[in-house]
Amino acid sequence: MQIGILQTGASPDALRADMGDYPDFFERLLADRGLTFRRFHVEAMEFPKDVHDCEGWLITGSRHGAYEDHPFIKPLEAFIRQAYAAQVPVVGICFGHQIIAQAMGGKVERYAGGWSVGPTDYDFNGEKITLNAWHRDQVTEKPAVAEVVATNEFCTNAALLYDDRMFTVQAHPEFRPEFVDGLMRTRGPGLVPDELMAQARARLADPLDDQTMAGRIAAFFLNHQNTRSSGAEKLRA
C-alpha cells in the first residue's frame, strides 16, 4: 500500500545530517509493515495533484502552529477535507493531529498548561502506551465527528479517530530518544522550562511503545483496504 508522506516541517539543521528528516523517521518507524512511501514537501507548497495519488496519507509534525498564517495551511486543510470525503485514509502526528482537527471543525491553541516533552504515558482506552512527546500546542476542542481514543491529564484529546477514515496522535511515535535529547539541546533552551527538560532527561531511557503504535498505524492503513470498519475496531480494541 502506497502512503504519501505530507511533510509540514523539518528536523533541526544541527540534527538532520546525523539523524535524518521527518519523512525518514516515519519510513523507519513503519518499515517492513506492507507499506511503501512517496514524499510531498507541502510546507514548500509541493502538494499532490489529487487525494487519490496515493492510497493513504500521513501528515508529519512541524514547528509551525496550525493556527498560524502560512501559505500551505489552507490548501492542506482543504486536502484533508477532500480526503475525508473521498474516504482515503489519513494519519496525522503532532502538527498533523492538530491540523486535521482544525480542518474538521475543532480548535487548536497554544496550551495554557505549557509543554509536554519526552516519554509520556497515555491511556489508550485502558491500555497504557508510552511515547515521546514534544509540543506546546494541542487540540483543545475536538471536532464533533472525532472520537477520543487516547488521553492523559495534560492532553485530553491525545488521539482521535474520525470514523474509519482518519486516525491522529498528538505524541511522536517516530521520535527516538536520541532525537528528543537533540531537540532539548538545540530547540529547548530558553523555550522549554529547565525543570521540565530535566524531568524528560530522567525518563529518556524508559521503554517506549513506538512499535505498538507503529502496528496500530499500519493496521489502520492496511485494514482500510479490506473493510472500512476493521481499522476503527482495531484501534478501539
Automatic annotation (TrEMBL):
<dbReference type="InterPro" id="IPR029062">
    <property type="entry name" value="Class_I_gatase-like"/>
</dbReference>
<feature type="domain" description="Glutamine amidotransferase">
    <location>
        <begin position="68"/>
        <end position="177"/>
    </location>
</feature>
<dbReference type="Pfam" id="PF00117">
    <property type="entry name" value="GATase"/>
</dbReference>
<protein>
    <submittedName>
        <fullName>Glutamine amidotransferase</fullName>
    </submittedName>
</protein>
<dbReference type="InterPro" id="IPR044992">
    <property type="entry name" value="ChyE-like"/>
</dbReference>
<dbReference type="InterPro" id="IPR017926">
    <property type="entry name" value="GATASE"/>
</dbReference>
<keyword id="KW-0808">Transferase</keyword>
<dbReference type="GO" id="GO:0016740">
    <property type="term" value="F:transferase activity"/>
</dbReference>
<dbReference type="GO" id="GO:0005829">
    <property type="term" value="C:cytosol"/>
</dbReference>
<keyword id="KW-0315">Glutamine amidotransferase</keyword>
